[in-house]
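Quiz preparation item.
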């Protein structure tokens, strides 16, 4: 994606924190390979084994999820890794002072690659300051199943959106001498029975959808680390799957980095894993014979024995080691090893966290311009529920807030007590079911922004009391939360209540919204959510703003959007269905281990388009406080088959705003594809009344299908339609078409 112009905002973002970074340049591939080969020749068998597994849980001197000790006699530095989905954290970096950004799903809703780059960069600076050379952020499994509890850690349902944003984030991270990770490879699309479920997917669907974001992250982003997943893919554990790890990732895509296992139970057999292409086992241990969390590790004594007996050739072990070493050299970790005890530029980081939150919020409904609120008015505003007096919600598990909350009592890290402090979730009961909140109070932020208004808070527990307060106010803002986590799936997309989420909800959120809306002049709903939400109450409220998990600066960001300092510009990275009965997978089975991708290519919006199902809110949808008009579409095809779609975008409203102009392609009928796919977009800022001509280049790869006979990408011959608009279901999309002769790619 290229921006039509670099906005002042973008320039400001890119310059945040530059002064503090002194990154070493990337080594050339040749230099990295040569250094790795020299070291491999000098290493003993034990030293090689040491580099292909983590040293175990809790061993790292700087905390984090993994630690591989260095080899000082050769000048090879140790490597510590930490979870970093939305900020350095996870379960093992307590109280680190690291910045927690809006969740990756929110980043995806910004549709802004420059912002993704800045996000990856800042998290890398903080990883280094805390002593980590590798970040485990970067989940890009597709939101095939929106009830997946990790949807918030991923980047939505479209492979190109997820892939290109991940590539930008990866570059931002690796440019700071930190290895980036993409995970969980592959088709790890729900958490129920996560260690044993078997994703059954046909080859074309796998290539065009589940694997495509990873292919883009490898080829365009140059990612150094790929974490394989817990689940089985077509009957074989992903981390022991040769088609996935060797044939596709390494041989076909040319991946030169390390394949790292997911933690706990991703590997169940040493030799098949190594020979399938797994390069590093995590978290590893000092003794493969010990049972930790119910499982063995394999890449210490057992791997050594397999090498000594010849079951694993030394050349394969050397390849595993060389991959790790060349990655350390290539991305400057050897030249510039991270040191714990560094400083984090907290104000720059917080400013970026706030920008991401502001750009990611999606305005879903705004009846009769209920928003923005007037910050200068002497009005009465009541905030209701969602703990909006003290904080904003974060997701759970390793990609969550950085705090694993037992939630017994409020703390500085989590201002909200859990209702069932001992509740645990998942098969292994390793995680608590307690939500964490960041201390970023919407109430305080709103009061600061609108000092003439009378702003108060009532909790939502007593719907009648909340409705009475709403009746007396000019505006009622209900904060509705949907907590999700690793190791669980949502029972439903309805807003959770005391029955469906007893650890975190004491009341029925839907009933609260209805009760408030019945009495209030103007009801605004703010969602803090990790996935799609169904809204049977939608017609009763005036406005809905989706804030996702908005990170540590969520309160101020909400104030700036609701009071109109920031014009919302986020667009949905996943479809919101009207009802769960509209989903391709009607329910997540708790008995069958087979997860059959019966919908094939009709994943995400492709399903709703192909089946002519009206979604509640379509993929790519999002309103603004201004209006945009599209006109004058043209397409041009060059000799290489590269299509450029151009059009004029005009801000026809009365305030500045940013629009995500999206291009969707309809492939020739003979291709057998769903009606449309996203092939490009640009996020453009325009002052009121201004128009701009926009060109969007579409590489042939974006129009390709996977040929299951030749096992190659193919550009089908025939007539291509292009549709341009502000959503995948724009009311008046612009249409154009072109003919392509077709070819193998
Ligand atoms: C998760 C990974 C995470 C790892 C280390 C696993 O359970 O699936 O995403 O990086 O734990 O915390």
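Solution:
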């Amino acid at each position: 994606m290229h921006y039509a112009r670099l906005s002042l905002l973008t320039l400001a973002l890119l310059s945040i924190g530059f002064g503090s970074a002194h990154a070493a340049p990337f080594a050339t591939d040749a230099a990295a390979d040569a250094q790795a080969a020299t070291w491999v020749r000098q290493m003993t068998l034990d030293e090689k084994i040491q580099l292909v597994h983590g040293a175990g849980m809790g061993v790292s001197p700087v905390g984090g999820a993994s630690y591989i000790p260095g080899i000082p006699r050769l000048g090879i530095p140790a490597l510590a890794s930490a979870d970093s989905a939305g900020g350095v954290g996870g379960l093992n970096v307590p109280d680190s002072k690291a910045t927690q950004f809006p969740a990756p799903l929110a980043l995806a809703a910004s549709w802004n690659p420059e912002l993704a780059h800045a996000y990856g960069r800042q998290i890398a600076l903080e990883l280094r300051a805390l002593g980590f050379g590798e970040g485990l952020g970067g989940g890009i499994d597709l939101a095939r199943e929106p009830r997946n509890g990790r949807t918030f850690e991923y980047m939505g349902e479209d492979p190109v959106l997820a892939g290109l944003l991940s590539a930008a984030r990866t570059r931002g991270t690796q440019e700071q001498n930190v290895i980036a990770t993409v995970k969980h490879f592959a088709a790890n699309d729900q958490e129920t029975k996560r260690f044993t479920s078997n994703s059954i997917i046909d080859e074309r669907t796998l290539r065009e959808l589940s694997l495509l974001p990873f292919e883009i992250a490898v080829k365009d982003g140059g990612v150094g680390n790929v974490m394989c997943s817990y689940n089985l893919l077509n009957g074989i554990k992903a981390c022991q799957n040769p088609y996935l790890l060797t044939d596709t990732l390494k041989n076909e895509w040319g991946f030169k980095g390390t394949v790292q296992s997911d933690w706990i139970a991703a590997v169940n057999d040493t030799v098949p894993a190594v020979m399938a292409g797994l390069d590093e086992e995590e978290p590893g241990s000092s003794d493969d014979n010990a049972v930790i969390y119910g499982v063995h590790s394999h890449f210490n004594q057992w791997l050594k024995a397999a090498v000594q007996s010849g079951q694993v050739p030394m050349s394969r072990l050397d390849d595993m080691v060389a991959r790790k070493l060349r990655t350390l050299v290539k991305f400057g970790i050897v030249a510039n090893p991270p040191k714990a005890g560094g400083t984090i530029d907290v104000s720059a980081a917080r400013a970026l966290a706030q920008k991401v939150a502001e750009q990611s919020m999606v305005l879903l409904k705004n009846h009769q311009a209920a928003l923005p609120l007037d910050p200068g008015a002497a009005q009465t505003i009541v905030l209701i529920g969602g703990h909006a007096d003290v904080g904003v919600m974060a997701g759970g598990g390793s990609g969550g807030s950085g705090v694993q909350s037992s939630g017994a009592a409020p703390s500085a890290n989590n201002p909200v007590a859990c209702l069932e402090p001992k509740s645990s979730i998942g098969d292994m009961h390793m995680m608590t079911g307690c939500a964490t909140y960041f201390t970023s109070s919407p109430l305080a932020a709103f009061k600061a922004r609108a000092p003439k208004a009378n702003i108060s808070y009532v909790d939502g527990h007593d719907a009648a009391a909340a409705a009475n307060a709403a009746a007396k106010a000019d505006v009622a803002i209900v904060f509705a939360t949907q907590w999700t986590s690793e190791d669980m799936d949502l029972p439903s997309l309805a807003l959770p209540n005391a029955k469906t989420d007893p650890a975190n909800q004491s009341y029925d959120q839907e009933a609260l919204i209805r009760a408030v809306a019945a009495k209030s002049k103007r009801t605004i709903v703010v969602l803090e959510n990790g996935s799609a939400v169904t809204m049977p109450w939608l017609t009763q409220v005036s406005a809905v703003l989706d804030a996702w998990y908005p990170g540590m600066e969520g309160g101020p960001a909400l104030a700036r959007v609701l009071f109109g300092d920031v014009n919302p510009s986020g667009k949905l990275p996943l479809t919101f269905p009207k009802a769960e009965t509209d989903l391709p997978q009607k329910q997540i089975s708790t008995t069958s281990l087979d997860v059959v991708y019966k919908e094939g290519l009709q994943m995400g919006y492709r399903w709703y388009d192909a089946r002519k199902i009206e979604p509640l809110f379509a993929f790519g949808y999002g309103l603004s406080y201004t209006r945009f008009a599209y006109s004058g579409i043209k397409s041009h095809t060059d000799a290489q088959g590269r299509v450029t779609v151009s059009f004029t975008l005009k801000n026809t409203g009365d305030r500045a705003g940013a629009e995500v102009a999206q291009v969707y392609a309809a492939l020739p009928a003979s291709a057998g594809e769903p009606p449309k796919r996203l092939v490009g977009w640009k996020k453009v800022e325009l002052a009121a009344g201004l128009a701009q001509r926009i060109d969007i280049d579409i590489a042939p790869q974006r129009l390709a299908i996977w040929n299951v006979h030749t096992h190659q990408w193919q550009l089908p011959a025939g007539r291509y339609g292009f549709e341009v608009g502000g959503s995948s279901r724009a009311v008046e999309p612009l249409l154009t078409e072109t003919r392509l002769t077709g070819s193998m790619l």
